Fold this protein.
Amino acid sequence: MPIGSNPIDATPAPPDPRDIPDATVARLPEYLHALHTLSEAGEKTISSEGLAAAAGVNSAKLRKDLSHLGSYGVRGVGYDITSLATHISSVLGLTRHRSVALVGAGHLGAALAGYAGFTKRGFAIVAMFDVAPELVGTTVGGLPVHHIDQLHKVVGAEGISIAIITTPPSAAQRVADSLVKAGVTSILNFAPCVLDVPDNVDVRKVDLAIEMQILSFHEHRKARDNAAIAQSVDKVA
Ligand SMILES: NC(=O)c1ccc[n+]([C@@H]2O[C@H](COP(=O)([O-])OP(=O)(O)OC[C@H]3O[C@@H](n4cnc5c(N)ncnc54)[C@H](O)[C@@H]3O)[C@@H](O)[C@H]2O)c1
């Protein structure tokens, strides 16, 4: 007996993307990654508890998230892995391959360009841009490095709508302005600065230093808790 109205293999009606909460959208890639890993391991179906554990979230949250997508699974069987992965991919707009531009072909840019994992997940960095004469005209990670002046031409020719910024922060706003002018509407910014963009442009910022600072806070708290425990043990002894 289905838990919800959709049988396991039925393709649910596509949800209106505006109805899916941002926090749910942020977790969908985790679910998709877990589903791909399970599929590669030869699994066909997965319980909500199993999928929640694989994605590192609690199962009530996972069920709620998937209910926003109209996916309810089947009691006693769970979710069909292939159908659910296809559905999540479609909600995330990953059923079409996305061409990505990268601006700043330095250390980080080169590392990202050489990472094969993006292609596996539906993204391909197709062009890099820089201003350094020693980089322009060369290939980095197998990709041509164009001068930033070529941005408009290449973005149009390659149908690029997503770009990654890996320039120093002092250049990032100027680069973002050029990207927006060239037609890019989504930016992943690695430079440690806030970008000012029009409302129709989405920016995601990645800052590993912030993640480290949060871990530092947890380390600090653990040390404090351990000191408190040691003190109370001393008192008892
Ligand atoms: N988010 C993170 O966790 C994280 C981690 C490491 C580095 N970073 C940031 O990433 C950025 C790049 O770091 P990196 O170590 O690769 O630096 P890098 O100096 O090796 O590379 C920067 C590249 O940007 C190019 N550049 C400068 N101005 C430009 C412009 N106007 N247009 C196009 N290209 C331009 C430079 O020529 C250079 O090739 C920095 O802002 C750094 O702070 C972020």
Q: What stands out?
A: Residues 103-109, 129-132, 135, 148, 166-169, 171, 174-175, 190-192, 206-208 surround nicotinamide-adenine-dinucleotide (CB under 6 Å).
